[in-house]
Amino acid sequence: MAVNLKQLAEILGLSQTTVSRALNGYPEVNAETRQRVLQAVRETGYRPNRAAQRLATGKAYSIGLVMPIAPGIDSDIHFGEFLAGLAEESVKHDFHFVINPSAPDDEEATFRRLAASGNVDAVFLAYMRANDPRIPMLKALSIPFVVHGRSIGGPRDYPFLDIDNTQAFYDATKLLLQLGHHRIGLINGPDYLAFSMRRKKGLTRALEEWGLGLDEELVHHSVMADEYGYRSMQHFLERPDPPTAVLCSSTVLALGAVRAINRAGLVIGSDISIIAHDDVLPMLKPENFSVPLTTTRSSLRAAGARIATRLIGGILGRDTYPEQELWRAELIVRASTGPAPGR
Amino acid sequence: MAVNLKQLAEILGLSQTTVSRALNGYPEVNAETRQRVLQAVRETGYRPNRAAQRLATGKAYSIGLVMPIAPGIDSDIHFGEFLAGLAEESVKHDFHFVINPSAPDDEEATFRRLAASGNVDAVFLAYMRANDPRIPMLKALSIPFVVHGRSIGGPRDYPFLDIDNTQAFYDATKLLLQLGHHRIGLINGPDYLAFSMRRKKGLTRALEEWGLGLDEELVHHSVMADEYGYRSMQHFLERPDPPTAVLCSSTVLALGAVRAINRAGLVIGSDISIIAHDDVLPMLKPENFSVPLTTTRSSLRAAGARIATRLIGGILGRDTYPEQELWRAELIVRASTGPAPGR
DNA sequence: AATTCCTCTCAAAGCGCTTTGGATATCCAC
DNA sequence: GTGGATATCCAAAGCGCTTTGAGAGGAATT
C-alpha cells in the first residue's frame, strides 16, 4: 500500500540517500533529479514515516502544552479557540501535541519534566504575568519556546507573539474621547495578567493625553466570563455618575455588559457606548449583537496558527521568522459607539 | 546522561533481548532476573525511547482527537475539562495527541485522513447524536475508538463510556415529586445531542410513573451557556403557571437560571427548587452557589481520564476493561431543593 | 544413559529514515 | 592530458527498540 523510501528509491533507480536529500532540500542533488523525485512522490503518495524520522534525527516533531487547570483558572473558551489555531497548523505539518494539565503552582515541575522527557522539541506559553518566572526558567532549561503575549518587566529577549494591547485600547479610547465621552469605564480581564495591565495602560494614556485622569472606580478586573461582564456593568450603572462609555476586554464580557444595559432600559450607542476586544470567537460575533459592537479585533485562532508556524519553523531549522511580533488590533467601528449623551 | 537499552543490558550483563522482555512482561524470563532488571531501571532512570518503540512496533502511541470547531458548536468549557482528563492520563503513559480541528460537515474526511495517516492508534469521539454516522464509519475504517456518551439507535456493539443520564434525571425528578412538585421544568442542552434526549426521557418517565405528563412548554433546549440558562428561566417565570422546580443540564446553565430567579425576587429552595447536573467543573462548584445546589454529579474529567485509560489499554493490548461502561450519577441533595410551595 | 522437554538466554535481523564518508564523472585551467 | 575542483550520486552505518529463530543447560522421561 504505502511505499517507503527504499521502494521509492528503487522505482526511481536512485539511492535512498539521493531521494532523501532531494526531499529535504539539500543542495547536492541535480535539479532535474529532484523534479523526478518530487514527481514520483506525487504519483506514489509517499509520506515519510515519522517514527523513523524521529529516531534518525532525534527530533520529537511535537510541541508541548501546559494546560492551566485549577479552580479559578481560565480553562475558558479562549483557550479552546487558541488551541484550535495551534492544532490547525500543527496537523498540516504532522506535529503532535503533548498536553500536560497542571495546576499553576506545579507548572515549574511540569515544564522541567517535559523538557527532560525529550518528548517535545519546543513548548508554548501563555497567560503571561508581570515578571513571569517561566521565561527565565525555560531559558535555563534551554528548550525552545514561543510565548503568546508578553511579560512585563524581566528579560526582554525572548520570542513572542503579542497583540499591541496598549495601542488597541488607546485607539478605542481615542475614538470615545473624540465622540465626547469623558467618563470611560473598563471591564478588564484578571488584573495579574499582562494583557489586562496593558489595556488599562492604553486607556490611561489616551485619557491623559486628553487632559483627563483615570477613575480607578471605573475599572473592574475579573475572569472573562459573561457573568462578570454583567455584574461589572451593573455596578457601573448603579453609580451616581455612571460612565458614558465602557471598554470590555472580551466579547464574552461584553455579552454580559450588554445584558445589564438592556435591563437598565438604556440604549447602546446613544445612552452608553461600548467597545469590546474581539478575539474572533466563532460563536460570538460582534456583528450579531443586538446592536453591532464596535471592536478592536485580532483573531486568537490566527495567533495560535502563527505560533505553531513559528514553533515548527524553529524546530525544522528554517527560522527566518522574526523572533518578536506585535500585531496591531484593528479598530472596527459599528453601531455600539456614538456621541456622548447631552453633547 | 540518559542510558539506553544497550547500555542497560551491558550493565546487567544480559542481552538486550532479555532486558526488553523483562520490561515488557514476557513470560520467558526468570523472575529473579526480572527483578534485577527492574532494579537497574530504577537506579539508572532508564526510559525507553518512544521513537524507537514506535518504529519497531509500528504503533503510534498516540490518540486522535477531532475537535469540533465552528459557529455554534460547543467549543465550550466542558470540552476543556474533558480534555484535561484525557491529557492527565495520557501524559502518564507517554501518549501523544493529534488534534484535528474540523467543522462538523468535514468530520468524516478528517477521520478518514487521520486513520490513513497512521499517526494514531485510536480515536476518541463525543457529542453523540441519534444514529450517529461516525460510529459505523469508524467501524468501517477499523480504527479502534471509544466514544464518550452513547448514540441513540444504530449499532449497539461499540465501546463507550457514558453516564446514565436517564437515570440521573429520573432520580432528580423523583426527588422533586416526593417534595410535592408537579410542574417541573427542564433547561436542557442542545436537542440533537443524545444526552439531552436521555435526560428529558428521565424526566418524562418519572412524571409518568407519578401519573403526570410532561409539559413540552417547560422544556428548553440550548447551548450550555450561562446566558441561555438565564433566558430560559426568565421565560418560565413569566408564564401564568410557572414551574415550581427546574432541572438544569449543567451548572453553567444553572448559573444563569439562578440569576433569573434572584432577579425575580424569588427564594431558591422554597419558592422554586433547582437541581442541576454537575460535571464537576473546578471553577463552578455547586456548593459555592448562593444557595448550594442540589445536583446529579459525575466528573467530566474523571470520564476523560477513564477513556484515556481504556484507549491506551486497548492499544497496549491489555484490554481487560469492559467495553461498555455506564456510570451512575450521584444525586447530592443540598439547599436548592425544598418542598413545593403551598404544600 | 539417551532422549525429550522446559526454561532461560542470546545473536542478529529488522523497523524506515538520516547522514557520513567516499566514489565517479565532468569540467576547467595549465 | 594531467591535477584539482565541482557536481552528483551511492553504500553503509547508525538511531534504539522489538522480535524471530535458535542454543545452552538442566530436569524429567524413557
UniProtKB/TrEMBL annotation, chains A, B:
Domain of life: Bacteria
Domain HTH lacI-type: start-end pairs: 3-57
Alphabetic keyword roster: DNA-binding, Transcription, Transcription regulation
Xref: Pfam families: LacI, Peripla_BP_3
Molecular function via GO: DNA-binding transcription factor activity; transcription cis-regulatory region binding
Full protein name: Transcriptional regulator
UniProt source species: Rhizobium fredii (Sinorhizobium fredii)
Lineage, top ranks: Bacteria, Pseudomonadati, Pseudomonadota, Alphaproteobacteria, Hyphomicrobiales
